[in-house]
Amino acid sequence: MTTATDVTTDAAPTTPAGGARNTVHGRLEHARSEVTPTRALAAVAIVAALGFALLFVQEPMLHDSLHHFRHAAGVTCH
């Protein structure tokens, strides 16, 4: 009788289908252990730059393209 392991053929650990990581708390703990401060800062910077562009760019051609992008993303502007 063989026992199941939680390691794939390339020796990478697998994520259990249920259990501790299948909760919000478990996912937050997993993210805290996996996301580096540099990646978190980069993500915040990208979101801030895109948010600034979507909200404050008023060049007509760029504004219209961003306006259409907002609608395509599901944001109701008016």
TrEMBL record:
Record's keyword terms, sorted: Membrane, Transmembrane, Transmembrane helix
Record-linked InterPro entries: CbtB_put
Low complexity compositional bias, start-end: 1-20
Keyword check for Membrane: yes
Region feature Disordered, mapped onto this chain: 1-23
Membrane-crossing segments per the record: 40-57
Name of this chain's protein: Probable cobalt transporter subunit (CbtB)
